[in-house]
Amino acid sequence: MSGYPTIRPRRLRRTAALRRMVRETAPRVDQLIAPLFIRHGRGLQRPISSMPGHAQLSVDMAVREAEALAELGIPAVLLFGIPAYKDSIGSENFDPEGIVPQAAYAIKRAVPELVIISDMCCCEYTDHGHCGIINMPGSQHYDEHLAEGYLLNDPTLEVLGNASVVHAQAGADIIAPSGMIDGMVARIRTALDLAGLHQTAIMSYAAKFASSFYGPFRDAAESPPGFGDRSGYQMDPANRREALREVALDVDEGADMLMVKPALAYLDIISQVREQFPLPLAAYQVSGEYSMVKAAAEKGWIDERRVALESLTAIARAGADMIITYWAKDAAKWLRA
Ligand code: PBG
Predict the structure, then answer these.
(1) What is the pLDDT of residues 284-325, one digit of tens each?
(2) Which listed site, 4, 26, 117, 307, has its alpha carbon 20 to 30 Å from 153?
(3) How far apart are CA 323 and CA 311, in angstroms?
(4) 86 is an active site residue
(5) 270 found inside a domain
(6) pLDDT one-digit tens code per residue, 9-39
(7) Residue 183 C-alpha to ligand 1 middle, in angstroms?
């Protein structure tokens, strides 16, 4: 009696209702986090050509979008800023009048229940496009033992700590450091606590890979590296054990939530982090994952909605509690329908 013909798994696939009863995973609106790109100005909605359906928004337009997202039941937004000026240390990142603090303040006032997450990184703000302070002869932090152009770890921590306090004071509920700088979580926790911001949480991009799937984002955030690439700080896509070690370090440093990024090509990492760590886990379905589907759908080669929902289901099945996705708004509508 242990197999066919007695056992027939197809019995439970016979009708839609049966399939619905035995379905193990479904992405939920509660899991979705919507990224927003904010720039200075008023009434602006500048379409991002590499990410159809997304635009850089001025603060007033971002507030409207945040209201629409909250209306759909989406619990959180992830803010990225396009600054008015860029310099070697990314000063606008820790300017209280900077673009993300302005947006966080305005969104928090208009939609207080919406969770505001600030992507904490330097690459959008630096003139060289790297995620921290770069080793340069003549500059304040120059280290002759390191190569010119090397990303200086510890001076970068100071910037991240200061900017995190500014973003949190403006209204960010969660700081999400995304630079893969050693010690970033501990440093940000200390800076927040010293400023009395004990309730501001940290969602660490704990295992972030040096991925070519970020291509369209760099267009959206105007943040491509001016020279070289990010493989000196982001992780090698080949490494699974190292990802678990990175996650363990961030847990020790006081992260409240973890993240794996990208998502679909890294489901094994998501699954293993879920098994080994009890903290809430986010997965970032990145720009390339979105734009590839958009492009193929425009050609009529695949069904966007089905592929997007299948991907979101797979990411949830792998073990993600939260999913950062450019389909957040569409998915919220699809899942409601
Ligand atoms: C860094 C950051 C990046 C993304 C999120 N945060 C770019 C990078 O690491 O180069 C990529 C997100 C995406 O591709 O959707 N601020």
Answers:
(1) 999 999 999 999 999 999 999 999 999 999 999 999 999 999
(2) 117
(3) 11
(4) no
(5) yes
(6) 999 999 999 999 999 999 999 999 999 999 9
(7) 19
Q: How many CB atoms lie within 10 A of CB 50?
A: 18
Q: What is the CATH number of the domain that holds 78?
A: 3.20.20.70
Distance 220 CA to ligand 1 centre (A): 10
Number of structural domains (the chain) is 1
Cβ of residue 33 lying under 6 Å from some atom of ligand 1 = no
Examine residue 283 and state whether it is found in any structural domain, yes or no: yes
**What is the average pLDDT score of the chain?**
97
**Cα separations (Å) of 103 from 64, 77, 220, 331?**
11, 11, 17, 24
Residue 286: CB within 6 Å of ligand 1?
A: yes
Classify residue 16: in a domain, yes or no.
no
CA of 214 to the centre of ligand 1 (A): 6
Backbone angles phi, psi at 6, to 5 degrees: -70, -45
**Has residue 18 been placed in a domain?**
no
Q: Which domain holds residue 125?
A: 25-336
